[in-house]
Amino acid sequence: MGATMTPLPSPAAFLDEAAALLGPRGLTSDPERMDAWLTDWRGRYTGRALALASPASTAEVAALVKLCASHGVPIVPQGGNSGMAGGATPDETGTAIILSLRRMDTIRSLDAEAGQVVCEAGVILQHLHDAAEAAGTRFPLTLGGKGSATIGGLVSTNAGGTQVLRHGTMRAQVLGLEAVLADGSVFDALTPLKKDNRGFDLKQLLIGSEGTLGIVTAATLRLLPAPTGRVTAWTGLGSITAARSLLRRVERDMGEALEGFEVVPAHCLDAVLAHLPAARAPLDTAHPWNALIECVSASADSAALRERLEASLAAALEEGLLDDAVIAANERQADDFWTLRDSISAAERAIGPAMQHDISVPVEKMPEFILAASPAIEADFPGTRAVAFGHLGDGNVHFHVLAPPGAVRGQWEEAEGKAVSAQVYDLVTQWGGSISAEHGIGQMKVAELARLHDPVALALMHSVKRALDPLGLLNPGKLVMASPAACT
User: Fold this and answer.
1) What is the pLDDT of residues 147-169, one digit of tens each?
2) Is 135 strand, coil or helix?
3) Could you read off the pLDDT of 263-284 as tens digits, one per residue?
4) Residue 29 carries which DSSP code?
5) All domains of the chain, ordered by start, with CATH?
6) Residue 303 in contact with residue 327, Cβ under 8 Å?
7) Is the dihedral of CA 37, 151, 148, 386 positive or negative?
8) Which residues of 277-436 form beta strands (DSSP E)?
9) Each residue's pLDDT tens digit, 340-361
């Protein structure tokens, strides 16, 4: 089911109609006003755009998309522009518009008793956290970029974060969805239903589609009761395999209270301490590996939770699963522990170039994968340093390969760095894992997905793309490469 992409007949005519539709606040072609949104957060991709559109409502988004379809104008949806895979950056042709959802930042409703909130796509994650807290609830997904990441972007990439171990990815938080499709029609499934067997669950198809099948404009999300207890611990470990054993021990002892289990190797902790002069190591002595553990409960206070975790860690110490541990004395110290974890990427950027991979393999295989893949990469690319950190509890680590000393930022990534990533993804695939656990495919991994993913799955993805976006106007070049049928 192919479709012919018609060339843009008249950019001027399109811009005139779009300006009349959106008004001066809603559309600009001013290079200075667009400049900040033409480069991705990592600085890896820079493109050009015909205009920056900022609609203020779902109706305006729908009208704009219909206008783009009639003129053959590609659309690149963009939330907080904090993605990690170049999924919200236009290409270099300058024929696409950036469709920013940032003006659509209203929390339409919040029902604490029902545990539901309806957010527009431009709501910033931190603002949702604040609103939920004010209502005596919480939204159970957080990540380092919560001050800029938007709900629409989180839904579109099926974002993860540090609470996936207990609560799941963004997919698990979405109860309902509103989206504008490629022809400008509005898919309205915001009403949450516990049971609904009217065919396909179309909202799940749109979640994680990175704006290639539709543009998320609002979502109904689940809220949980505010926690009555929170306890955070930092532990020192001798190996990554010991970290897995400790994870299993704490899971048995703490049950559903265990919400986060993050591993941090010595190299990453040292980098953060050098990057943040005011930061302090939680333990008196250095350890090859560290684990950050957080337990939260809505039915127990912090004192009771602390007693349980202390008992679990004491037993683990006797069993030789850990070498040392400290439990945060207060909320500020707990936040300081998390600052160390959340600052790893920034600290690494300060060191120099690196290739960053958010990969997953089965939890039980992750330590062995790290022990096998790290020396293999370092041997094949002399001078590099492979470091793995992050969400061991859900089988997802950030596997970063730091460039050799003296490597030039920008040049190394485009040369040797691409070969590094290809080998990392080969290894992940051999271990039965995924080349993208939480950051999405974007344009960064689109060729590798085409190279390594199951051909049957790829064919299904292309079929869905052609069916929902026959003109190929929604976020072209992202997630799925153009197939021959799409160009006929």
Assistant:
1) 999 999 999 999 988 888 889 99
2) coil
3) 999 999 999 999 999 999 999 9
4) -
5) 11-103+464-487 (3.30.43.10), 107-225 (3.30.465.10), 229-344 (3.30.70.2190), 352-441 (3.30.70.2740)
6) no
7) negative
8) 289-297, 324-327, 354-360, 385-391, 396-402
9) 999 998 899 899 999 999 999 9
